[in-house]
Protein 1
Amino acid sequence: MRSRSVALAVAWRSLHNFFTNPTLVIPSVLFPLFFFTAFAGGLSSVSNAPGFDFPDGYTTFQFVFVLLQASAFGGVFTGFSIARDFERGFGRRLMLAAPNRSAILVGYALAALGRAMFVWVLLTALAFAVGMHVSADAPQMAGLYALAAIMSLAAVLWAAGIALRFRSLQAGPLMQTPVFLILFLAPVYVPIELLHGWVKSVAHVNPITAIVEGGRDLISDSPVDALLAYGVGFGLIVLFSVWALTGLRRAEAAG
Amino acid sequence: MSAATRIQITELARRSIVRSLRQPAQVVPTIIFPLFLVAVNVGGLNAATKLPGFPTNSYLSFAIAVPFVQAAIFAVNNGGADLARDIETGFFDRLSLTPMSGSSLVIAQLAGVVALGLVQAMIYLLVALIFGASFAAGVGGAAVLLALVTVIMFSFGCIGLFFAFRVGNSEAVQGLFPVLFVFLFLSSGSLPRNLIERDWFRTVATYNPVSYLIEGIRSLFITGWDARALELAFGCAAGIGAIFMVLAVTSLRTRMART
């Protein structure tokens, strides 16, 4: 019960800070909308390339990637909040007050999900406004948003592990850059079969590829390898949970 | 130019160059990040070369122009942030007590970003050639490329200086980076304008001067000597430079009056 109170209090505080601070809200919203506009608008003729066979069109193809990317970056930006809290000493006071410190992490993860959901609503509204075609039914769309939630959780746990180890905003690039790299080494612009050179080889072993392709299969009502997509997603969450919890122990040890 | 002005510019320019090249945090990401993005785009968008009307069968030759302009966006950040730091630390106040002219100060402050830009340009060109990009304009084209990069870096550097004089805060100048990135994405950087399907995007790309900077550089790689593309590129770069140079000098006067 007390753990739940801690988690909800941390989540509420983090979300309150987010929604009342335009310098946090505006980039979080504008970046995904801008990426979606630039990719879906500027590159749509790529769908005319031989071998591009995504049935629902290029806007839908890019929507899935940008949705997952926005979710991941929402998690990373929440990691920035964790680093800021610890840099300013608030995290230390929080740890003194919390009977179960893991609940602090749960609170930040809930906040990341809340931020992601806010962006999902705006991004989805924009995508439908510009004519996105969706073959999926409601459960398939729910499955897509579940994948986005998994991305958000995996990213916030990764970023939390860094934030709790360094306890400084200067570690921001360490949280952000690997996420950026791994996302862009998935099939961003075209299906994996149309990738070229070393990027294709990397994309084949990149775990994010399974999640991106799973999402695209779900939205286009195509046969989806759900076990692979969700399995990889949950695997990342387990891995980064261990990473974040050991980070929390480091922060505790540092005092 | 008087001897005194020349000495002023030389000394401040030397400081600007040394300061830029001595900061690995400024130099390394500005070389690695654009090359990584172009590598990913080449892997991801190579299929676009199969589109009818695509000007080359090598996406690398097409896309390699983008890092040159991306480097200029970094120049806005780096040049502007360096000047803002001078303002924050009080160095600029001490400079303003000397008889140095405003335009000398602006020109000299940009020496560092221009020098760094030329280093970046040579690395991008070398990497492009190693990985098989064509460079249709030959050796003479390389000289034109470096001249164009110099003008672009100077012009974008003026944008950074203008904002630095206006806000006097390095964090606020850093915030310009995403805004300028928007111009890069809404340009003909990823596809030729005639192959952009969405009308609104093609219109934005057509009015976006960054498209012409990219197309000028790209012409040297793909076409060889395209006088029209080069005129537009040099013209847009010089136009941006002239506008922001005037704005920077005006803002400098305002700041000096306040000081």
Protein 2
Amino acid sequence: MNKRGKYLKNFENKNLFINGNEALSYGAIFAGCNFFAGYPITPSSEIAKLLSRELPKVDSYFLQMEDEIASISAVIGSVWAGGKSMTATSGPGFSLMMENIGYACMTETPCVIVNVQRSGPSTGQATKTAQGDIMQARWGTHGDHEIIALSPSTVQECFDLIIKCFNLSEQYRTPVIFLMEGITANLREKVIFPLAKNVNITPRRKAKKNEQAFGGELIPPIIEFGHGRDVHVTGSTHMENGMRDIVSQGVHDKLVRRINTKISKNREKITVLDEKIVEGANDAIVSYGVTARPAYGAVLKAKKHNKNISFNRLVTIWPFPKKQIINLGKQVDRIYVPEMNLGQISREIERYVNCEVIPITKIGGIPFTVDEIYKEIGGTK
Amino acid sequence: MIFFIIYLFKIYTKDLLRFNSVVVSSKNGENTLIKIDEKLCKGCDICYTICPVNVFKKSDEINKKGYFIPNPVNNDKCINCGLCLVMCPEFAIYLDD
Amino acid sequence: MVTSKNKNPLIKYLRKEALPTTFCPGCGCGTILNAYVNALDNLKIHPEKTISVTGIGCSSWITSPHFKGDTLHTTHGRAVAFATGVKVMKPDMHVVVIAGDGDLAGIGINHLIHAARRNIGLTVLLVNNNIYGMTGGQFSATTPKGLITTSSPYKNIENPFNIADIITASGANYVARWTTYQIFPLIHSIEEALKTKGFSFIEIISQCPMNYGRFLGIRTGGKFLEYFKENSINIEKAKNLSENEIRGKFIVGKLVERNSPEFTEQLRDINKKFQDDHR
């Protein structure tokens, strides 16, 4: 058994009382992460702290880089040299990483970027929580691109979903963003660790001798460095063999459409929702992340008072689960969208539904309570 | 004449030796033919500027892209210093038997 | 001398479909590519054993797309940061960064200095043509003061960096400066840099006859080489000269050679601590 296997055996039959940062760090090790490059930023510094201690135990590498741009650069470079890599940051660092996230999209580099959201814009409330980077995760980098972003609501999900992030990144050869909130990062809950052998890990599909790394099929296999294949990786528009061609319109059209289609076409396979639809309910709540917890609490409270509300929690925020939301919009008169921002997902929902969309916004670093949401959805008691 | 050329070469390479380098050793009197691949040449003036014995002269001949190709008129004077081979930005110069 | 039918024998290291190069006639980039493959050929290093990492700019086009072997053409200024990730995962390969002064000494100087500080086993060839060539001749961090350029029509009021000195001060294991005129010492220096274990750095002062030469009045590659020849002073000689005598000149030679421990090796040493116990 290799080092990682021996290390993971220590978690067998263990339930630990840990916080979100720790849970996702252990999850990354379970997923096979062997390279982390990061820069300290509240509230994600703990991820780097734990991984700096644990990654050497599984013969993996931890690097503290000079800034977030260097962090994401080192992550992408390491992937092409054979690594399974991750970085973690918060809003300001996430903004810095945008150019190279676009580079990862264009070169189809599988990697995971954790954004532990804090109150913005700018330095904002550095130690307070928010959900303000939702649209940025989708559109932060320039040009036409698709992105996959997951959002955990519990500390257990921090563990489970980070593994899913790594799997999605390998399956769709794309960077995946893990959008969590500062509060979940610091929240302590019980995490049940699975047996390492029961963890499903998507292997990296490497190209055979006659396969190309940048075309030829919807999701081409990757060619890592060091195998004598003369791989040419560039952020410029390139042909199927990776060589740059910025002149012909057809090459750019084919490439950019393909890297968008590979995700948008598989929207339904990728999107995961926690749906609790009630037949005949006139209202629905759509929420995500930590806000989903008091939102569901409000749904339960409403039920006690004989009001049925459908509940929908977005686990994958991007690509947006448009089919499920369109269906929901047809069944109800009103969709409430509680968010710790000034209405980012509510705007996205409005595009797809004809019913009324009522954003419930709260900013300032204090999360929603059940009563706050309950009051907004018409609850009086 | 040959001694004069060796003398010139030594003066020139002394220039380079000042920089604590290992100089390519020359084989004097070898009959090598200097060839220019006109598909690659861009008619910059580096080879005929750098050649210590003025093998090259700019010719009136232009290639398909309109560059004036250098002509190794004084091929027999070549002292095999290797500068043109290494300096050419286009890898256009090579030696043929 | 190796003779060959029909082409320069070192073209075997290049991607034939990329030739002729996209460089301007007389550009130093082609000469540096030539020097680089000569150095690899002398050391018998096959392109398969190298990973080229480049940034954005004319000099970043030296190995990408012309040179064979695995290539990572990254974003502006970030080549060294990408190369850090590559080297950690592939410590046995030669990871060579070739980029320009605008790229490495301008936007990317942060990453360059930190990599030198870490002494990570990269070989960095900074092609210094003292200008932002590709975008039309804007002044860069190494453009001399007082020069009129595309973005300094009233003369450059900024002082230039002495980039090789900065890297020396940052702790690199090998630092040298040459111009494209001193081609044989340059090839030898590249060989030494490739053999160096820690961070090796060569500032190669190169000619840009198109977008820099036009501000200096030097319009061809050959004239530029003569300019380098006349204004280069060997570092040993420069030690005995006054500041006035060396101002504006190119001080060439090996600046420093150290034997500090290399970064990725130390990183692996940390992991070795956990060979037997895993808690």
Protein 3
Amino acid sequence: MKEELMKVHGLKTYFYTRQGIVKAVDGVSFEIGKGETFGLVGESGCGKSVSALSVMRLVPDPPGKIVSGDILFKGKNLRITNEDEMRKIRGSKISMIFQDPTSSLNPVMKIGDQILESIQEHQELDKAKAKEKAVELMDSVGIPNPSLRFAEYPFQFSGGMRQRIMIAMAISCNPDLLIADEPTTNLDVTVQAQVLDLIRNISRSDNVSVLLITHNLGLIAWLCDRVAVMYSGKIVEHANVEALFADARHPYTKALLECIPRLGEKDTKGLRVIAGRVPNLIDLPPGCRFHPRCPYSVGMCAKEEPEAIEVASGHSVSCHLVDKSMKGK
Amino acid sequence: MHALLEVRDLQKLFPVASGVIFRKVHGWVHAVDGVSFSIGEAETLGLVGESGSGKTTTGRLVLGSIKPTAGKVFFEGQDLTTMTKEVMKKARKGMGMVFQDPTSSLDPRKTAANVISEPIEIHKAFDQHEKEERIVELIEEVGLGPEHLGRYPHEFSGGQLQRIAIARALALKPKLIVADEPTSALDVSVQAQILNLIHNLQERFRLSYLFISHDLSTVRYISHRVGVMYLGKLVELARSEDLFSNPQHPYTAALINVVPVPDPKEMKSKMKEILRGEIPSPISPPKGCRFHPRCSQMKPRCKEIEPELQEIGKDHYVACHLE
């Protein structure tokens, strides 16, 4: 890994609800290097989005709370940073784009004014200069006729164009880290490719680190340098992207890779299915959280929670069986 | 193959109107514009396309839930478009449908048993005793048990709800099921379960499917033949293997090229050429070939003349001027 930008260590974010404590993120650790694209992948409810919100300190409180852990960003611990300072970091040092650009934009405010707002919040620029910069930004994210479209409203933009606007706002203050939470889930495949290509170009040309959160392993394969697979609030496998796809070790990662239909081949035997369902986050199974669904599970899996074991340089797996009986299977 | 469903030159225009009392029509959305295909017995035809390509409207036209502006839909040799409501109701027994989001397609105040029995009651297909037997049979067919029958939708997971929706679609022993994005709202591991179920049901009951999806990998997996739609037109129609290994239309090729696959090496070589631009408005589709403004191989005549769907190989149809 290159020079470290962010290090998250032992992060636990719980939600205190009437039904009980929801352990959405339960001891997650990862690092993001400078200029690196790091992926968090998992199914719904695995805690990938809550991890991102925790990093931004945007977990709704109550009911949510970061219970423990450290979020070190350029040496500063964001978990104990006060709210005023956090406000300065959000949008300028770390910025975020979300799944649905329609609900992230104000429908009754001109697109240009919304970009201006994010520029003027963090930078001392007069209106004319700021406007010039906003138009430049719109141009750089691929909006045709930016000076004309500056005065239009969100409904006059297509979904892909709105996401480009969100990206323009996110990069307006040259952040060090861009968090993209399912940035293309609502977009068509051709537009998805365009938006992701844009994010990749920004990351490369401005050396911006990206935290990409997605359920789509294909996007991880395309964009990420390193990746962590999450299941029920825990990271189960953590590796370089090449290692993860060529040599997945955790039974959950393997199963996840096998249950995706592929374009190239047609398998008549049917797709691999992961039996059962994701456990309830209030009432988690003891031991390894995946054991009730795991085909390799042995007695120990139900009793002891597995620690992360490094199987190769930069490749760690949280499974009791990783170097034993699973070999060759 | 004997065609169970045949669709000929189907067209649907939706008016674009303004005004509250005096509606003034000032344009038409060309949602589906001259689409023809057929589906054989025990065959799955996949329809892929991006949003606004007209795939969902095509599904609704096939079901007869909306009337076409022009064109014909033949189901088991009968023309659905000229039928009266009464005759239509009978013909519809042969068709079922499954929607994208089971949480909104199932009534939250009905138990699973009520949901599944609804089509039986509408058509008065069985007597009380037979109905109860049929409901148990159906819920087991989709991989759930009789103990689930008394539960309400909020007690089920998304995958289970989709199973109930499939059981409802199967209630009257249909021959054709129109499935509109049936797995798009589900997680990947659950998606695999539902796809396997859809596949197994076809083998058991010789069902035919019109499978509508924007996800090429899913369509590739489930379909025998695939049609690619763009702005209300079918641009390519071929057997699944042929379409994906040897796409002829530039749009199909571009679409296949941008599908993310879980393989870092393949992705690095694939994503070099990304289709630019977005789908134009279906209110005023481009003249000539509708894809020409985004096509990298555009020739002058593409701007003027609309290409027809032509057979270029066995069961392989393409609407493109390029050789």
